[in-house]
């Protein structure tokens, strides 16, 4: 079985499990996530490989991390993620990418990401639920963070925190690759 097949089956199992645990109907989850009911049915039946944006929306609507949605199995209290199990969820032909390094539920979803943006590349994000906070530390290059249309320049060695319940994007306007580590904390669903 390929990695993609494992991810598709894990996503199917976990979306169904967490939807049932939250007491959401397919229609309720579709409305909360802004995803069609048909898409959710295809995901729960492991008949589609949705975009990372769709997976993030579903995770936000369920109040769980992308890591939990893609987890092959529930692990012990201590979980080591080997380098070869880090999941690359977004990439461009230029060489930009984001990798989900680790995640947990504490008390809401908490994720840690590894990002690389090549010169001229950017990645936009829809607003997350109110109370979501992101913390980024730039390792190389300079991050251009745009939140609600305002640009913030974060050089290598600097960090930034922001409330992520507004439209935001990560960009590299420089001439060298930009690398950062990003933590995302989403409040639990109430």
What does this structure look like?
The protein has 190 residues and is of the alpha+beta class. Helix content is 27%, strand content 34%. The chain has 5 helices and 10 strands, in the order αααααββββββββββ. It has helices spanning 3-22, 26-33, 37-44, 52-62, 66-70, and strands at 87-91, 97-105, 109-117, 122-125, 133-140, 142-147, 150-155, 159-163, 168-171, 178-185. The strands form 2 sheets. A 6-stranded antiparallel β-sheet has the order 1-2-3-10-5-8. Strand 6 and strand 7 form a beta hairpin. Helix 1 (3-22) crosses helix 3. The longest helix has 20 residues, at 3-22. The chain starts with a helix and ends in a 5-residue tail after the last strand. Mean pLDDT is 87; it is low at 74-78.
Structural class comes to alpha+beta
Mean of residue pLDDT values: 87
What is the terminal-to-terminal distance?
A: 37 Å
Oligomerization category of the chains in this entry: single chain
Number of helix segments? 5
Q: How is the biggest beta sheet arranged?
A: 6 strands, antiparallel
Order of helices and strands: HHHHHEEEEEEEEEE
Tell me the strand percentage band.
25-35%
